[in-house]
## 1
Amino acid sequence: MSDTIIALATPPGVGAIGVIRLSGPTAIQLVDAVFHGKKLSEQASHTIHFGSIRDEKDQILDEVLVSLFIGPRSYTGEHVVEISCHGSNYIIQELIRLFIRKGARLAQPGEFTMRAFLNGRMDLSQAEAVADLIASNSAAAQQVAIKQLRGGISSEIKKLRQELIDFASLIELELDFGEEDVEFANRDQLRALVQKLLRLIHKLSDSFQLGNAIKEGVNTVIAGRPNAGKSTLLNALLNEDRAIVSEIPGTTRDTIEESLNIQGIQFRIIDTAGIREASDAIEAIGVQKTLEKVRQSAVLIYLFDVIRTQPAELEADLAQLLHDETQLLVVANKMDLNPYTEYKHYANPHFTAEQWIPISASNEMNIEYLKERLYQTVVGQEASMDGAVVSNARHYEALLRAQTSLEAVIQGLDNAVTTDFVAMDIRHALAYLGEITGEISTEDLLDNIFSRFCIGK
């Protein structure tokens, strides 16, 4: 924290401009020493200044704009200087080397944001939202990250956690007077607060399915027998001719992957080779890849031809393909040729009527309904973007552990256990909730989180 750090804040490569960021106690002093223009140490915060930067031989390296942010009114809470130079990789590297010679050091991944956290400019969940915002690839992912950056989850947790801390201090006080049988914490009020926290935790943890799908995307495999219409379905979902469609069985021998955005959720749609006894070595590899992709999928669209597929064949295929982590949609294709087929004709223990979707891929019949069912399968019927949404697996795990501890508090109150056991469960719950916002953190945890950031952020 005593060092002044430097990094390129824009992506590497040739562009119109590059932005070099410095942060630390000597950031303004270092730039002032080589900047020819206004005296930066005499300028107000949040101002921009034009000038040139010269090396030790008084050679002009570039004409630049210098943005000045005087701590603590900056991103990191320290003095921050951002230099906008021309986007030549040579110029950028020469400027960075110049400042390193002057005493700065290269920043580690995420070090600017880590300093913002350590200096109290944001809590840990907000810091993690910075990385999520940079990585967002859809409107929904951006919306979730922005809410988190603005304190969506932490603001809800902090208030109730502070109330629990107040009760915990009264419980701890009772332990100091253990021999006198006094009770400072009202047990009914404690129970009401814990139940209130549990309702919030249930609400947040239930949102993780939606949040994780928005953040990570959803692996979705289209599988079925040859000539079931898998490639036709892929084209219909994408509304373009992405896959080759042929009447010849086994046309698709490798997987084809495309992205499909449905209401803000990124589905990675994977068209696979038909499942059958392969006629040659290449097709056998394609079938094996199909089975591997199915095992890795979050959603399986099992597509079958209602003209050619018997119920026993469908059941046998599902028994081979399904695994515990897969959400299933059974899609009956070519319904325009056989409109009398119904769910009851193919019903078996592997799926329900809600998972049955009749379509005609070639005529794009019911494709929009299939998209809606895909969305609902992933996010659930009650999912909403209105409130705080948990998209971080670390937060989700901490919420589950806090829930277990708070449920133990309720059980302890119900069974009139001794105060020291109630206090211990409250301490555990406070620790798990504190891990989310960073009130309780370890060096290993911080290193793990910020090492995933890009350098320069």
## 2
Amino acid sequence: MTLDTWLIYVATVLALMSTPGPSQLLMLSNSATHGFRRALSTAAGDLTANALQMLAAGLGLAAIIAASANALSIIKWAGVAYLIWLGARMILKARPNDPGVHGDGPRASLAALWGQGFITSAANPKAVVFFAALFPQFIQADGPFWLQFFILSLTYIALDGMFLSAYGAGAHWIARRFKGGAKVWIERIGGGFMIGAAILLGLKSLTQNS
């Protein structure tokens, strides 16, 4: 893979990531409500799912997953329902006298935050098809396939991680400047972001099925 090819790939990925999707909205929510460092577990879950989707694409499983329409629908809509439930719970539980609003209450475990990120990304299993369609555009036939595939995958994960971290750091910076009752609205806005992520996933599912 030449440097020019790699730079074009980076520009393409940056363009694809220029608008926030479900994972970015979830990162905003968890970073604002649980703190940036803990929200990094959410980013790790998202990137883990992406890595598995890339591996599936590399192993030639894209056609199999694309043919499993029923399985795709179940996974996608289960992810949508899960995010709506989490977001609604955040909105309804946010109270001025809630200890969690002041940072003294129980926090979600790192495993739970990781699971949210993983489910959000895995709820779009057609990402496997996306990677299977994207990567061949930049892989040279006369070069070692797996080395090029590894470079493309690692680059994508690094760029996605940077985007998620930027969203999370920004949300955390804003949330730290609100105290007491104002943090109730941070909690509610976070729940709204999570529901927004679910809506985006649902719209993607409807678009892909139409």
## 3
Amino acid sequence: MEMDAERAVCSRAGCRAAAKWRVDWRNPRIHAADRVKTWVACDEHRGFLRDYLAARDFPVSVHPLDAAATETTK
């Protein structure tokens, strides 16, 4: 997924900080394995967004916004 890292704003409600992280996730109850949604996060909200999704048993991975996918967190 290509994204303009310089203009991305955190997906956390009410946050207007610059995003530095890509949070990729899917809801396995309604999405096929190849359907991945992406939120972006600032440093402060990276953990919150990841934990929010993981608490719902959604497959989730977090990567630097401007780098290739390398880190998986579930």
## 4
Amino acid sequence: MNEINSKPEIGLDPADWDDIKTLGHQIIDDMVEYLKGIGEKPVWTPIPEQVKDELKKPIPQEPANIFDVYKDFKQNIFPYHGGNIHPKYFAWVEGTGTPMGAFADLLAGVMNSNATIGDQSALYVDKQVINWCKQLVGYPADSSGILVSGGSIANITALIVARNTIIANAKNAGVYAAQGKLTAYCSSETHNCLGKAAEVIGIGNEQLRKIPVNDNYEIDVEALKAKIKEDKNNGFMPFCMIGNAGTVNTGAIDPLNELLQIARTEKIWFHIDGAFGALAKLVPAYQDKLKAIEEADSVAFDLHKWMYMQYEVGCVLFKNAATHRAAFATAVNYLTAHDRGLAAGPETISNYGMELSRGFKALKVWMSLKEHGIDKYAAMIAQNIDQAFYLGRQIQQHIELELMAAVTMNIVCYRYNPGNLDDDQLNVLNKELLMRMQEKGVAAPSNTLLNGKYAIRVAITNHRTRRNHLDEMVAGTIAIGNTLMKEYDSKLFKFDFLVKK
């Protein structure tokens, strides 16, 4: 046997708890002051090379003073965040976060709950939050759901349940249990995470049929029907249809009611990817267009997007709780429930998803909804939609700017177009314009391609944004675009793709 170690036992708690208290007060003071003045700071700051070098150093061997650790964070990490806490951040679709959400993550970190198992408060809060999520989209009380990291895992989870429900014994035999190759259907505008989901569940990306869209970037229903018929005639087995409640490129909403009827006729699973757009259901003007969510077999959405909560927390709901549980539940002796004690708690959340280890995601949702109430969130979403339509009108009022797609919800796509360049030149020009806008800290939209045309893409899921921020972005676009055209005239800026190597 090994000899008993006579060295003093050690731990990771501080030697002086007052130091932790002092540092905690300093952190809160610093963060509050930073957020109070966030609008006066650049949206995004490029990371200097010396900071990148600092963040390549090897693992520390010896302890450091906690105040020095925090100083290192303030100097090398905090100034170079992604920018989504800023009122002029419009890149991708990312929520802004709130002070209460940050406090919730701090409190969850102190509790350090593995929020999937045991008779502990975290599981009861999780269940309550799932019930609140059902109410958000009009799902019945006896439906089911799970909190996940975001839309990607939510959609994968939905497709696993769809596959296992439509195909008998798929849980054990996988796709080999199907009478023919499984096929799923979505529009060509669907988020790429659905392609990954098709790969993960074993059908392969080729069997995710990407149906063309119409001029409004909505799925072409007649093309969808034709493809399903063609696949069935060729021995394929359609099992799932995915509708978009807000596409990532333009915010387009597929004709969900029509898709629902097709799915019911074909007897296949109907899933809705509503990563951000499903929550527009809280706005009266969008309730009819999103009514089909209530009848869908599953729906995915992110609370860290249009509910403005801290990363990361997404949700997927299932109309039939039994099929959801059947897809993941596995009896193992080390998870056996007991009559009393720690193992007497709610059913382990691992029976409803992949994870047995998971942080207390639900707390930030619980605290945030209690702080603001759902009516305020609905008003915030409506405000963002109004801001998008306002931005669309502002773009149309400037001869140098071109609106690239109709504004339908909270996404606006446009480009700078001086009127004397072809599309290839405009693509290069607008790409350079966007990068300069970000580097100067003017605003931080993202980009996309619409029918091969480079577009500056503005996604408004930001509770700090005001109309003046949109005005500043429009003015910045025109100013940078005009500068680029002057540089082009002076031979300082080139359309590089036209230069022969």
